[in-house]
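Key result, reporting period 2: structure in, sequence out.
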């Protein structure tokens, strides 16, 4: 399902972060938003995810308006997954519990197979602090992908991973996202990263 931004404007008080932004992230493709720090990338993702209320314009999923100035469904009611820069795993929960968190009860036992897909087979009983930064980021990816969201929003997801591992991780990530067939919007300020992973920039 495509994700479309139509004439979005957004202000934080006096700061006008976005002005008349329109673009479509096509279904099943990886679209990169590439731009300098402060240009409004995270704001756009926040509007689609429901972390921010749309002030002007609309966000559409396929043929349906997901959010506009009137409609503001909460994040958990949107078929949208989010991955942040620091992974943001729940520190007091095991990896398996982290991944199972977003799954319906009947599917909780799928957590281990999602961990295996991101190269963390057998690590379900570990806690986030027992992992390297790259492993934590993989786990965060598994958690975001497990509920099989129609749209996955990724905000600088590899920024906290060291540079050697980063290249490897994003290649693997691209393959996984491809398999899942998800519509992805990935934010980065790194042109090399955008060229490496994107279908469209
Ligand atoms: P990016 O993700 O591209 O770095 P952001 O979307 O985070 O950019 O921010 C866009 C602009 O909005 C920046 O000028 C930033 O300082 C400002 N901004 C972001 N969040 C807030 C906030 N909560 N309050 C005030 N200004 C903000
Ligand atoms: Mg940002």
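The corresponding designed sequence is given below.
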């Amino acid at each position: 399902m495509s994700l479309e931004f139509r004439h979005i404007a957004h202000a934080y008080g006096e700061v006008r972060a976005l002005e008349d932004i329109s673009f479509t992230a096509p279904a099943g493709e990886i679209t990169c938003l590439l731009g300098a720090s402060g240009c409004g990338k995270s704001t756009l993702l926040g509007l689609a995810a429901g972390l921010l209320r749309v002030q002007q314009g609309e966000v559409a999923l396929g043929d349906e308006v997901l959010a506009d100035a009137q409609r503001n469904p909460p994040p958990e009611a949107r078929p949208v997954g989010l991955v942040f820069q620091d992974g943001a795993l729940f520190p007091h929960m095991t990896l398996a519990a982290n991944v199972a968190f977003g799954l319906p009860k009947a599917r909780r036992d799928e957590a281990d197979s999602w961990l295996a897909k991101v190269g963390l087979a057998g690590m379900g009983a570990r806690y986030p602090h027992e992992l390297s930064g790259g492993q934590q980021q993989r786990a965060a990816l598994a958690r975001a992908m497990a509920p099989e969201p129609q749209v996955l929003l990724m905000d600088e997801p590899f920024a906290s991973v060291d540079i050697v591992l980063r290249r490897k991780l994003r290649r693997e990530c691209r393959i996984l996202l491809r398999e899942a067939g998800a519509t992805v919007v990935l934010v980065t300020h790194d042109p090399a990263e955008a060229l490496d992973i994107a279908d469209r920039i």
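The pocket of adenosine-5'-diphosphate (ligand 1) is lined by residues 12, 15, 17, 35, 37-43 (CB under 6 Å). DSSP finds six helices and eight strands in the chain. This case is discussed further under Risks and Mitigation.
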